Amino acid sequence: MKWQTPKTDWQIRYDENGRYAGDYFEAEDYQRIAGNIEYLRQMARELYTLVPLPALPQITTASFAYAEDMNALEKGLEDLLQASFLPPGTPPFSVWQGNAPGPGPEDLNRLENICAVTRENLAAQAQARQRLAITLGGVQF
Question: With contact defined as beta carbons under 8 Å apart, do 64 and 84 qualify?
Fold first, then answer.
């Protein structure tokens, strides 16, 4: 699994003619966030004993079922943080409903920022781990 730089500048904007010129949330964006959550799970497994976490659905443009897929991202990231390290001040996670307004730029920025901060935290924790200066079992006593 490979880390992909999170998009943290989601926005709504309109051009001078009033046409929407902002960001659209596409299947590729979903896959980037899901892939980053999987990457974070791998990082966390090196530091914590994690219970098995449910797999995130793989989607395509044709199979994009908005509320269920967004709930999978929210729950996957929340479960990971609850099982490893939930930084103080982490914004609350959302639950999305079908036939209701979906996530906006603030929600997407929140998810992507949580992923970025979690990566920084896990990398710092891995770097700060105590290690022995000797190799055990390397010399017969």
Answer: no
